Amino acid sequence: GAVVSQHPSWVICKSGTSVKIECRSLDFQATTMFWYRQFPKQSLMLMATSNEGSKATYEQGVEKDKFLINHASLTLSTLTVTSAHPEDSSFYICSFPGTGATEAFFGQGTRLTVV
Amino acid sequence: TQLLEQSPQFLSIQEGENLTVYCNSSSVFSSLQWYRQEPGEGPVLLVTVVTGGEVKKLKRLTFQFGDARKDSSLHITAAQPGDTGLYLCAGVGGSEKLVFGKGTKLTVNP
């Protein structure tokens, strides 16, 4: 399967600071990418769809000014959590859709802890 | 809004037992996927089912897609401690978005 590299795997930051998470596909290109958030013992919740060369599409209830998404190239998308607060602490995961939308390739996830 | 109801939410069994996880929806999905997720890692795809009535086997795991493509099941035979993890079903909705079930936390005790 395709390889998706997500970095960092974990990060601890102070309240009010910003954190950038990178998601990179190593062996294929995609115009679309998805960012998810997962709270402990819960399933994945789609936050936004990242579109290469255009603005991201955010799901209802997700603040676009707080979660900045940049899909700079066909192999790289970044999620920046701005002015982080403790309630933003979560597990963030990116995914690239496979061909024909029959599968998705996930990054390893980033555990964000805001103190 | 397409929703996937996954059950049971938690399952704790002894090694060697069989189990079934269900994923149901009122919506039709073009395909449905099953993932397994370990703590602190991203989900890993186990299988994709596309055709209504399709059955796929992956060693001790058997996946079935309902005839109407609204539901699916995962059956594990003779579970082992290494099967422990979070199992997620996901349906492909509009715009290639994946709709996830809430997951089944499986614990297999030695």
Give the topology.
The complex is a heterodimer of chains A (115) and B (110).
Chain A: E1 4-7, E2 10-13, E3 19-25, E4 32-38, E5 44-51, E6 57-58, E7 67-73, E8 76-81, E9 90-97, E10 104-106, E11 110-114
Parallel strand pairs in A: 2-11
Antiparallel strand pairs in A: 1-3, 3-8, 4-5, 4-9, 5-6, 7-8, 9-10, 9-11
Chain B: E1 5-7, E2 10-14, E3 19-24, E4 32-37, E5 44-49, E6 55-58, E7 61-65, E8 71-76, E9 85-92, E10 98-100, E11 104-109
Parallel strand pairs in B: 2-11
Antiparallel strand pairs in B: 1-3, 3-8, 4-5, 4-9, 6-7, 7-8, 9-10, 9-11
Entry keywords:
A: 115 residues; seven-stranded mixed beta sheet; four-stranded antiparallel beta sheet; 0% helix; globular; B: 110 residues; mainly beta; six-stranded mixed beta sheet; five-stranded antiparallel beta sheet
Could you describe the 3D structure shown?
The complex is a heterodimer of chains A (115) and B (110). Chain A is 0% helix and 53% strand. By secondary structure, chain A is an all-beta fold. In chain A, the strands form two sheets. In chain A, strands 2, 4, 5, 6, 9, 10 and 11 form a seven-stranded mixed β-sheet that branches. Chain A starts with a strand and ends with a strand. The model of chain A has no long low-confidence stretch (mean pLDDT 90). By secondary structure, chain B is mostly beta strands. Chain B is built from no helices and eleven strands. Chain B is globular. The mean pLDDT of chain B is 92. Classes of the chains: A mainly beta (115), B mainly beta (110). Chains A and B meet through β5, β9 and β10 of A and β5 and β9 of B.
What structural class is derived from the secondary structure elements of chain A?
mainly beta
- Write the element-wise H/E pattern of chain B from the N-terminal end onward: EEEEEEEEEEE
Outline of chain A, from the CA principal axes? Answer: globular
Spatial extent as radius of gyration of chain A: 13 Å
**Oligomeric category:** heterodimer
Radius of gyration of CA atoms of chain B, rounded to a whole number: 13 Å
Uncertain regions spanning at least 5 consecutive residues of chain B:
none
Q: What is the tally of helical segments of chain B?
A: 0
Helix content of chain A: under 10%
Beta-strand fraction estimate of chain B:
over 45%
Span from first to last CA of chain B? 40 Å
The first-to-last residue Cα distance of chain A is 36 Å
Average residue pLDDT of chain B: 92
Largest sheet of chain B: 6 strands, mixed
The fraction of residues in strands of chain A falls at: over 45%
Mean of all residue-level pLDDT scores of chain A: 90
